[in-house]
Amino acid sequence: MNVLVTGGLGYLGRAVTLDLLAAGHQVAVLSRARTTLTLPGGATLVHGDVRDRGRMREVVAEGRFDAVCHLAALAHGRESFAQPLAYFDVNVGGTLNLLLALEAAKLPTKPRFVFASTNIVYGSIHSGALTEDMEPHPESPYAESKLAAERLVAAQGATGALAATSLRLFNLAGAVDGVPDTDKTRIIPNALRAASGESDRVTLNGNGSAVRDFVHVLDVATAFRLALEVTKPGQHGLYNIGSGTGSSMAEVVRVTKEVTGVDFTVEEMPPKPEPQLLVGDIKKASAGLNWAPTRSGLRRIVEDAWLAWRTR
Predict the structure, then answer these.
(1) Angstrom distance (rounded) from CA 145 to CA 135
(2) 8 Å CB contact between 19 and 225
(3) 10 Å Cβ neighbour count for 139?
(4) Number of helices and strands (H, E) in the chain?
(5) Max CA separation in the chain (angstroms)
(6) Could you list the active site residues?
(7) What residues form DSSP beta bridges with 292?
(8) Where is the NAD-dependent epimerase/dehydratase domain (predicted)?
(9) Which one of 148, 163, 232, 286 is most buried, by most CB atoms within 10 A?
């Protein structure tokens, strides 16, 4: 397939691009950046912003893509409360612009569209493992924007104009091609900063009892490729992509200390409201995509991230 990956120079985008290339697909990476320094070998760079409707029409018309992996997004829940319009502009408007571009291009075959959604759309009202048939309960402008984009993709898919799938991603971690996640809002990169001496401590929200589902970025990349292969026109596939197991923030800190051999300082901050448990039920993805998170044990994730952190 000839695949366009939006946000392809990012942490997840790099993993998806490399996975697609390894499987023999042709890949173009859409980015606002003009540099090719971080572009995976074998991919081509296409300059553009998903908010630019005219440019998206040019990109799709010129590229004649069979498929799109749409990863470009704003993705920080707390930030979204201060910038709700920006989040809807990028996450909903950008998705709309790509769908309009695919429709206008009148491609010879129905294009395939895989959308990067998020587990955050479930909110905090559910108990136990989260399943795709649970009612979403978004609790931030970020979550609202992702759910709106999901529904937009589903509605266009239902027309038969394209084959559509949305992947509700859980907590990405690990490393890809020697590149670790450096997001300062995430626990594993922050623990590695403390272990490496780049910061003097790692802070926890409360006592670190909140449980999250950590999934290796390489496993997530494989899920995107498999979703492209199985998605069918007139349908909208919806899948949780996680490890299917939960780890508390305190456990993440403990494992990071064991892997790095560094007993760094941990500071417990006054707790802020957040869901106590967010773990995905991944049986549907296992059956529908023939996918399994083979690299997503917590220790493997931290070991890969630490190796990449030290050699970056």
Answers:
(1) 16
(2) yes
(3) 17
(4) 11, 16
(5) 59
(6) 142
(7) none
(8) 3-242
(9) 163
The amino acid at 285: A
**pTM (2 d.p.):** 0.96
Q: What is the pLDDT of residue 276?
A: 85
Q: Which residue has the tokens 């509605």?
A: 155
**3-class SS of residue 218:** helix
Q: Backbone dihedral region of 128: left (phi > 0), alpha (psi from -120 to 50 degrees) or beta?
A: left
pLDDT in tens, 141-173: 999 999 999 999 999 999 999 999 999 999 999
| Cα 179 to Cα 17: distance, rounded to the nearest angstrom | 14
| Helix H or strand E encompassing 287 | helix 283-289
Element of type H or E holding 115: strand 112-118
DSSP secondary structure letters along 121-147: GGTTS--SSB-TTSPP---SHHHHHHH
* Residues 183, 186, 191, 196, Cα dihedral to 10°: 0
Q: Which amino acid is at 174?
A: G
